[in-house]
């Protein structure tokens, strides 16, 4: 299967829209929101009393407090299980301290946003929060960090902690393997992971440590050598990291320091530049859809004058009255500059499922229907299960109808009939 969007189509059509009469892209002048918002003042006072589990998280909490003291919030929406702030594009964490970069992008961002309003609104209908309809045009919707994200070491890791790991905690994976027993890693500049719905990966609602996810990885590491790992990652996750209770959402992640303190989900660290009115990362999403996660490492000079990893989300409804309808949205990018050096850039593609569980069989379930695995790979491949804590899950392989082809049923047992 070819990539669902070509490079030219990505440039022309994967952005979002804006009305010409409003400009919520730039950082406004005037006092920040905290000077007149009692609600925001109370939020900052509340999180200031949190007790993070590590020194690094204490430092991040202080940065979070400082961030909310200087931004201009366009609109705040309180949902049942989370709060969303609509902020100017220029004041998102990755740009607020980089006004020159922001200014260089603004003209192109405004035009691209204006040209694709309908696409974003349609995409937003698949999420509990539709940032195209509920945020002012030109704003970026971000979740207020939950107590879990501000205090929990495990919620901020995608790799088991080196110290203090729970006795029964550990990671489990189902990935692709070749005949030599090596994980499949494709050297490429663009690829995709296609997970057919339903998205039934789950964690217990009150389990604040575990996660279950489907995703792709672009890494510098083929895992056949002991070197630090740097990555660009994108997928769908079930967790209680972003909402209470747990929910299923899309996420982005980048390892910029070998999964250290500066490697974060979504916009918890100032690494990911998110385009205006794109889906809010961490907000519950429609779990019945197919999700295609795409990466293209390229230069789109109208946004960034150097290469970056551009992430595109495609949703596909394969049932119901709107069967076969697809929507594509370019969410944003990770710049090459966030990685230590050109020699550390992620360049090998892989995909699959991952679970972190505090203990085996504690209610966290692995699940994924992965279509035509490893686009561009022509060798032999099979599923490789692994686990740090003997928390193994079933799997099986079938040949599906066109256009799906080979299907890996990850985390699932084949039933009779």
UniProtKB/TrEMBL annotation:
Superkingdom of this protein's organism: Bacteria
Signal peptide, first to last residue: 1-22
Keywords tagged on the record: Signal
Annotated Neprosin PEP catalytic domain residues: 210-366
Protein name: Neprosin family prolyl endopeptidase
Pfam families per the UniProt record, alphabetical: Neprosin
InterPro entries referenced in this protein's UniProt entry, alphabetically: Glutamic_endopeptidase, Neprosin
């Amino acid at each position: 299967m070819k990539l669902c969007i070509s490079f030219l189509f990505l440039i022309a059509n994967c952005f979002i829209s804006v009305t010409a009469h409003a400009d919520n892209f730039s950082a406004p002048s005037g006092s920040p929101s905290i000077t007149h918002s009692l609600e925001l003042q109370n939020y900052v006072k509340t999180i200031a009393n949190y007790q993070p589990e590590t020194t690094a998280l204490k430092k991040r909490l202080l940065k979070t407090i400082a961030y909310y003291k200087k931004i201009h919030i366009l609109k705040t929406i309180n949902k049942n299980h989370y709060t969303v702030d609509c902020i100017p594009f220029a004041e998102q964490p990755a740009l607020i301290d980089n006004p020159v970069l922001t200014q260089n992008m603004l003209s192109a961002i405004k035009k691209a946003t204006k040209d694709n309003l309908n696409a974003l609104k349609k995409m937003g209908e698949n999420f509990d929060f539709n940032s195209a309809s509920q945020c002012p045009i030109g704003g970026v919707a971000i979740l207020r960090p939950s107590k879990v994200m501000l205090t929990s070491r495990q919620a901020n890791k995608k790799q088991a902690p080196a110290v203090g790991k729970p006795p029964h905690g550990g990671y489990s994976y189902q990935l692709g393997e070749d005949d030599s027993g090596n994980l499949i890693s494709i050297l490429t500049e663009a690829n995709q992971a296609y997970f057919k719905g339903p998205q039934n990966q789950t964690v217990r609602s009150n389990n604040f440590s575990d996660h279950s996810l489907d995703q792709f990885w672009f890494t510098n590491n083929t895992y056949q050598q002991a070197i630090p790992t740097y990555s660009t990652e994108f997928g769908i996750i079930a967790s209680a990291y972003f909402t209470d209770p747990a929910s299923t959402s899309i996420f982005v992640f980048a390892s910029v320091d070998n999964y250290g303190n500066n490697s974060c989900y979504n916009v918890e660290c100032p690494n990911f530049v998110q385009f205006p009115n794109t889906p809010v990362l961490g907000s519950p999403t429609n779990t019945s859809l197919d999700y295609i996660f795409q990466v293209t490492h390229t230069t789109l000079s109208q946004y960034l004058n150097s290469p970056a990893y551009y992430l595109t989300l495609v949703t596909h409804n394969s049932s119901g009255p709107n069967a076969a309808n697809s929507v594509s949205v370019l969410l944003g990018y990770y710049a090459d500059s966030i990685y230590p050096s050109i020699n550390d850039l992620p360049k090998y593609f892989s995909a699959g499922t991952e679970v972190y569980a505090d203990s085996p069989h504690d209610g966290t379930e692995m699940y994924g229907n992965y279509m035509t695995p490893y686009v561009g790979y022509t060798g032999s491949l099979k599923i490789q299960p692994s686990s740090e804590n003997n928390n193994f899950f079933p799997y099986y392989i079938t040949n599906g109808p066109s256009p799906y082809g080979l299907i890996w049923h990850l985390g699932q047992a084949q039933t009779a009939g």
